Amino acid sequence: MGDASAIINNASVVIHTIVVSLKAENARLLSTLRAVQEACKCPITHALPEKPVVASDGFCYDEGAIEQWLQHSQTSPMTRSKLETGHLLPNRSVQRILEILRESGVECSDGEENEGDLQIQGPINSARSQVLFQCPGAFSVASHLWNSIFGENANT
Questions:
Q1: Burial grade of 53 (CB within 10 A; 0-12, 13-18, 19 or more)
Q2: CB–CB of 21/127 below 8 Å?
Q3: How far apart are CA 44 and CA 61, in angstroms?
Q4: Mean pLDDT value of segment 109-130
Q5: Is 76 contained in some domain?
Q6: How far is CA 130 from CA 93, 109, 153, in A?
Q7: Is the residue at 86 inside a domain?
Q8: In sequence order, what are the residues at sequence separation of 6 or more whose Cβ sits closer than 8 angstroms to the Cβ of residue 33?
Q9: Does 90 fall in a domain?
Q10: Range(s) of the domain holding residue 122
Q11: Per-residue pLDDT tens for 64-106?
């Protein structure tokens, strides 16, 4: 029984270490994703652009929003200097960044900062599975530990 107890204790320590590491990495990724998301937002709509374009002021806007703006004003919403009309260029870099985020399954929602805002499909559950199944006999204790840290719905 002593060997089994030692295995379970070691597995618990390993799982706890991995959980702490994953939480730190999750926080770092969340911060980075929020910064990228904020940098890509249209300054008119304060939302991610459907079709990002660059105006002559060098700023990126949602095409529909800047076209509507230009119907009422010929100045930059950011600098208030005169904008050259008809010179909206597709912002392929921002478009690609947004596509990569969508394709990767990463969503970083607006709102209050909490761990639940970042949704990454796969890595945490994958790491959990690798640890649990490489430590035979520790599954039930590790599962209980995991659920006590992440909550009962963390199994999905």
A1: buried
A2: no
A3: 7
A4: 48
A5: no
A6: 36, 29, 19
A7: no
A8: 101, 106, 108, 118
A9: no
A10: 2-40+113-155
A11: 999 999 999 999 999 999 998 788 999 999 999 999 878 877 6
- For 107, the 3-state DSSP assignment is strand
Q: Would you state the structure tokens that stand for residue 89, as one six-digit string? A: 């260029």
Residue with tokens 């909550």: 151
| Strands 60-62 vs 89-90: parallel, antiparallel or unpaired | unpaired
pTM: 0.59
Backbone angles phi, psi at 75, to 5 degrees: -110, 160
The domain total for the chain is 1
Give the position of tokens 């002593």.
2
**Helix or strand or coil: residue 148?**
helix
CA 120 distance to own-chain centroid: 7
